[in-house]
Amino acid sequence: MSGFPTLRVPILAAPMAGGPSTPALVSAMAEAGGLGFLAAGYLPVAALAEQVAAVRTAGTDLFGVNLFVPDTEPIDLPAVLAYREALLPLAAELGLDGLPEPYPDDDGWAAKVDLLVDQPVPIVSFTFGLPDRTTVERLHGVDTLLVATVTSTADARAAVEAGMDGLVVQGPGAGGHQGTWHTSDPAPSLPLDDLLAQVLAEVDVPVVAAGGLATADDVHRVVSAGAAGAQLGTAFLLTPEAGTNPTYRAALTHPGFGPTRMTRAFSGRWARSLDNAFIATYDALAPASYPAINQVTGPIRRAAAAAGDAQHLHLWAGTGVEHVREASAAEVVAQLWPDARE
Length: 342
Ligand SMILES: Cc1cc2nc3c(=O)[nH]c(=O)nc-3n(C[C@H](O)[C@H](O)[C@H](O)COP(=O)(O)O)c2cc1C
Hints:
Layout: E1 11-13, H1 23-31, E2 35-39, H2 45-57, E3 64-68, H3 77-93, H4 109-118, E4 123-127, H5 133-141, E5 145-150, H6 153-161, E6 166-170, E7 176-177, H7 192-202, E8 207-210, H8 216-224, E9 229-232, H9 246-252, E10 260-263, E11 271-274, H10 277-282, H11 292-307, H12 329-336
Parallel strand pairs: 1-2, 1-9, 2-3, 3-4, 4-5, 5-6, 6-8, 8-9
Antiparallel strand pairs: 7-11, 10-11
Helix pairs in contact: 1-2, 3-11
Bound molecules: flavin mononucleotide (FMN).
Flavin mononucleotide (FMN) binds next to strand 7 and strand 9.
GO molecular function, one term: nitronate monooxygenase activity
InterPro entries: Aldolase_TIM, NMO
Family: Belongs to the nitronate monooxygenase family. NMO class I subfamily.
């Protein structure tokens, strides 16, 4: 693509790995004048290829694919194994026969990059780090725009130096994982509006704002401040187009959940979730090891989701979760950007 796209509606549906992002959501966003992302994280490369094909078959030309940049920090194996041990009684209660030990996993990085070079898409975004130079060159070589998620001004500068064409500035109110570049980084705390202002003063590429945005006023505020768009995840979780699992869907509007909380308990990386019994019990014990902790807790989270047990499942949600309602993606876009109706 030549140049960052000018969207009719400056609303982006965030990539949401683990089910919520679907080809249907991506196509609905494009039809509404915004932009959607497929989430390649956790997906086998063949499934990603199918999703890209489905978006194209639906006639959607403008969309993005989001990749997890592999973590290079060594894991603290004794701490991970101790955490696994602490989780075994819960696993047994959920009917599981043990829990896995950690194993090497780079989320199929090379195969996913190869796919996106062979079958180019308009935009590729990255979280958890920056792509290596060769990957930047290969993807630019097939005319793909590259976007990095940043959680600090230093990251923003480094991303632009590495050749990123745009940035997603993610504030600490974001649902799901924080896109920090090192698992052991402290949880970011600078409010989105402050981070956005700092980054806009430093870089010349388009900057999209994300994290805790939930209303038309929120979107208006970040766009007025200079953002090229607002990227929202939580706001789209209850759309029929999203693949949010039923247990998670029910929890999002259940009055029993209080404020959201940032925790490493589910994956080893900082992530914001509705607060539940799992976090209350295990947050203090969880080591900063990704994807090791994600692997260890995976069977518990899957069993809890299947059993309708929202207390032992990650329930990613941003600080604006109280505004989330069941509505189609087009309706959510129209609420967030009232001019979209025109
Ligand atoms: C369920 C869920 C899954 C997410 N998965 C990803 C992902 O795969 N890649 C990514 O870059 N960000 C991911 N995020 C973070 C979003 O990109 C975005 O920063 C966040 O949703 C913005 O905050 P909000 O949820 O308050 O709108 C996820 C967020 C949620 C809620």
